[in-house]
Amino acid sequence: MWQGKHRAHSRWQASKSSGMLRTETYGASERKRNNSSLDSQAILLLAVQGLFGIANALSGTFIGVYLWKASGSLVLIGWFNFTQYAVSGIVFWLAGKWVKEHNGMNSLRLGVALSGVFYCTVLLLGNSAIAYVIPIGVLHGIALGLFWLSFNVVYFEITGPSNRDRFNGWAGLLGSGAGIFAPWISGKLIAASEGERGYSIIFTVSVIIFVIAVILSFWLKKRNTGGRYDWLHGLHQLRKDGSPWRLAVPGIAAQGVREGVFMFFVGLLIYMSTGNEQKIGNYSFVTSLVALLSFWMIGKYLTPGRRRTAMLVGTVALGAVIIPLFWPLNYTILLIFGIGTSLFMPLYIIPMTSAVFDLIGRDEESAQRREEFIVLREIALTAGRMIGISAYMLVLPLVKSSPQAIPWLMLAVGSSPIVGWLFMRRYVSGGSKDAAHVK
Length: 439
Description:
Layout: E1 11-14, E2 21-24, H1 30-34, H2 40-71, H3 74-101, H4 104-125, H5 133-158, H6 164-192, H7 196-217, H8 233-239, H9 245-274, H10 277-301, H11 307-320, H12 331-360, H13 364-368, H14 370-395, H15 405-414, H16 416-428
Antiparallel strand pairs: 1-2
InterPro entries: MFS, MFS_trans_sf, Sugar_transport-like
Keywords: Membrane, Transmembrane, Transmembrane helix
Transmembrane segments: 42-68, 74-95, 107-126, 132-155, 167-186, 198-220, 256-274, 280-298, 310-327, 333-359, 379-399, 405-424
């Protein structure tokens, strides 16, 4: 039974010499793992993630707009996103064996490198990229799958229940910082360079930053391998009576439903309302500044015992801030929505992420299967994103005849975190006695 007493969970792996399980501290002493501070490896991982986030914020924010300007088709953009989500889910499952049994750091580096290749490819294709949305979606999906699988495994290994909220707070802080300046700079460059040349500049800069991130990643220590990879471990957990993952998986999927649409559609709505990339940069500047302050405050003061209440407040608020979208859509309305989302998202996402990884490390047997559980988490997220993008594709034919279809879509998918809270509520509280078993 996982008691959530804030004691560091021992990490376990198969011994290469005897096959016997041993406690693994992942480069930290017991004292450090009980400490809420972050060690040098955690800080280095945050730096790599920060660079990855900056590069994607510079260019990824505008990929949807770039494809929209070239095609004028929301359906095409939907297929691009659907493809990358589907492929990333498959990559999570396939690459799990590589990460568990071989050098997982190479998966992280290859993911960063392929992200650079993706932007190089879009840059070389130019406007003809719209004819290759499926292949470039596949490429981006492979890159994201390789990076986030390895990143999450390393993140689990170098954090514990006592410092996981702090790490997530800093990760959100860095992501918000990237969102403040990178899209704003990109928007100004694109606007000042008459579009196409501006896109070429920001895509090139992103590639350079990805290269720097790859170089920096070589200072991350190689992780120890953890035994044989079980291809069907996730399925076994879903079929097992009493497994907490029978509730956690649909809760994680509910998180993905929202992400699947909001990660690209909000920027498109801003451009469609204003016709100006600079407005997207300004929007990102304001909302990311709010998110930065919110992540800093919540990451500093949130404790495992407060997660359940924080997550409930966050989920309700994230649904409520969508209501202004039912007014005539313009930049001001979208900005109000964005500020509200940025303010309350940390209340939801920090407890959600920390609780899921605490489940992975709840006991010796579970921690030994950390790669398989992370794959299960990522596949659940991917499934949710594909559900969200499918809803988007189904609603598109209704938009011309009924413009209100868009805010109803946003409300439906944007309220999915409430469903996630219902599934996860017994696991987000650090003192929950139900944290290990479903009754």
